[in-house]
Specification:
Strand content: 15-25%
Largest sheet: 13 strands, mixed
Structural class: alpha+beta
Number of helices: 17
């Protein structure tokens, strides 16, 4: 019997080592029904509390391949009556539901999980002949089905090193309970201490608290959740915990987790987002040859708007000198879409001729023909000296260069065919929007031109310029969100700006990226002190360095495991939401230290 166990342990260990190779695949099927996956521990909310972002092995039930239902092809080609069709539709829905359930991570039984962990532990024990000179294995975690009385959802194991030698192994267990509003059912702080002391004979223990609150994100209106892709949460950590679910003290350390998705209608940047979207439409048209034009914001055609603009400029040239300051070339064209908040942030009073033209065209053009016709009117007016518009010195667009030539009665011929008109309009938009962003960032003293050089470089091609402008827009959306909704002080906004600028110099555009910002709790205390936490935790620990062991309790408004369905009277959608008595899921994390002889 013993030799058979050792043989199975060697086989299991061999598979783990092959997976640990950097060049190997990230998964392997063992015993036909067990899937072993190599992954970043940070991708799992509850496991990451113990192992952080280090690489781990996860064992779970292998997901069987789901074949297409035999009747599906018949449904698509049959000429059944409506009733039969309805029945088939119902069958398809059932198949879809079944498929969805199958694709969820599936747990193993508690007995199988313990067997896998015993093999893993055996393979690491220096006293066993099975152990070779290979590097130690990554930590192993096994999904469990909660079939035991404790409700175990995870079992884990991790080797402990002293120098390069394995001297012990940590065994983890994670148990869960469904959501409840009954606070009396939660483990008390004293019970948590006693649970820790049962496993670890230590006279000195440390206690730490943690909590996460939502400061900005999805909102609830009349019991309906309005989802948002943007979120700002705060993680607070403190010592000297006195009771479960206590409010974090002002002495806590606080970190903002900021994730902002552009296009949120609540954002003061929403109008700029629409302007950037039109710019992106032009860039996509150049790249693919196809353009999906946005709905015009103006009822007047682009050509008529341009003609009217030229007439205004010509009339202004004939008016007295004192009226020149009131020309359309120095004032911003108003629109019903402008909002007071937006204007207070980014409105500029120094829009030049090209920028004014961009404002009109981006709100009215609906075809390539519109762009070509508008630019033809402008270039002819420049060539014949009908207008003498002013532009900013640092304007880089092709149209700006033609305007400079017109000052000397010499305008180059431009063939407004092919992609030329679209490229010219794209350049105009890039120039204008860049200046809008610079105006805000420099005006608020959040950065300098030197730090913006990567984003302002016009030597790269137009497509790359658009990508960098989108990055700058995302950065600005983050800053404006934190400034408007959280009222962060200048020093924190400055630090956040520098962090975002540095990140996007090397990283690809990513709205899912979560930016971190250290902050004093007093600055945002009014947001969370009267609110219910998304997550609240307390941790009891003893020992030091690699031999440190922890026992913790986590209360959360959502389950921290994704492979079991909880028996609860409170749906996940309502647990922990705005109510007098929020419902919390309970997760207990325990650790045992086993020393090798």
């Amino acid at each position: 019997m013993g030799s058979k166990v050792i043989l199975r342990a060697k086989e299991f260990c061999s598979i783990l080592r092959s997976l640990q190779d950097e060049n190997s695949n990230d998964s392997h099927t063992f015993e036909e029904d067990i899937s072993i996956v190599k992954m970043n521990g940070g991708k799992n909310a509850v496991v990451s509390m113990y192992c952080g972002k280090q690489t781990i092995f996860v064992c779970e039930k292998a997901i069987p391949k789901v074949c297409q239902p035999e009747h599906q092809e018949m449904t698509e080609t049959s000429n059944c009556d409506d009733d039969d069709g309805a029945e088939n539709d119902g069958a398809d829905d059932a198949d879809a539901d079944a498929l969805q359930i199958e694709l969820m991570p599936q747990p193993l039984t508690i007995m199988k999980a313990r067997e896998l962990l015993s093999w893993y532990t055996l393979s690491l024990n220096p006293g066993m002949s099975i152990v070779d000179k290979h590097p130690a294995l990554h930590p192993l975690w096994v999904r469990c089905d909660m079939s035991d009385p404790a409700g175990t959802t995870w079992l884990g194991a991790e080797p402990v090193y002293v120098d390069t030698k394995i001297t012990a192994i940590k065994l983890y267990s994670i148990t869960c309970k469904g959501s409840t509003v009954d606070k009396q059912s939660f483990v008390t702080l004293e019970e948590l201490k006693q649970e820790h002391k049962k496993r670890h004979n230590s006279t000195s223990i440390g206690i730490k608290g943690s909590a996460r609150f939502s400061l900005f994100g999805s909102t609830v209106v009349e019991n309906t959740t309005i989802e948002s892709q943007s979120s700002v949460t705060v993680d607070l950590k403190w010592s000297h915990v006195e009771s479960v679910l206590e409010v974090p003290p002002l002495s806590s350390t606080a970190t903002l987790n900021i994730k902002v998705a552009t296009g949120d209608m609540r954002s003061p940047m929403f109008d700029m987002y629409r302007e950037l979207e039109f710019l992106q439409t032009l860039a996509d048209g150049l790249r693919t040859g196809e353009t999906e034009w946005m709905e015009p914001l103006e009822s007047v055609s682009a050509v008529n708007l341009t003609k009217t603009y030229l007439e205004e400029l010509q009339n202004t040239a004939k008016a007295p000198q004192e009226q020149a300051a009131k020309t359309p070339g120095t004032t911003r064209m108003k629109s019903d879409t402008d909002t007071p908040i937006f204007n207070s942030f980014l409105e500029r009073g120094d829009l030049d001729f090209v920028e004014q033209l961009w404002v009109r065209m981006r709100k009215s053009v609906t075809s390539y023909q519109d762009i070509g016709d508008c630019l033809k009117l402008i270039i002819n007016a420049l060539r014949y000296g009908d207008i003498k518009p002013w532009i900013h010195r640092d304007s880089n667009s092709s149209l700006s260069k033609l305007i400079l030539q017109s000052y000397h009665q010499q305008v180059d011929h431009v063939s407004l065919t092919g992609i030329t008109p679209v490229s010219m309009l794209l350049e105009m938009g890039l120039d204008k929007i860049r200046k809008d962003y610079i105006n805000y960032l420099i005006g608020e003293e959040l950065t300098t031109l030197n730090h913006l050089w990567y984003y302002l470089n016009t030597e790269v091609d137009l497509q790359e310029q658009v990508i960098r402008l989108r990055k700058l827009h995302h950065l600005l959306d983050i800053i404006v969100t934190c400034s408007t909704f959280l009222c962060l002080p200048y020093d924190r906004l400055f630090h956040l700006t520098q962090s975002c600028l540095q990140y996007y110099k090397t990283a690809a555009y990513d709205e899912e990226h979560e930016f971190k910002l250290q902050i004093k709790p007093a600055i945002i205390s009014h947001f969370y002190q009267k609110e219910h936490p998304m997550m609240w935790g307390v941790e009891v620990s003893s020992g030091h360095s690699a031999l440190e062991v922890r026992t913790s309790l986590q209360l959360s408004d959502r389950p921290l495991v994704d492979h079991v369905i909880f028996d609860t009277d409170y749906p996940v959608e309502t647990a922990g939401r705005d109510c007098e008595e929020p419902a919390f899921f309970s997760t207990m994390l325990c650790c045992s230290l086993v020393r090798f002889a």
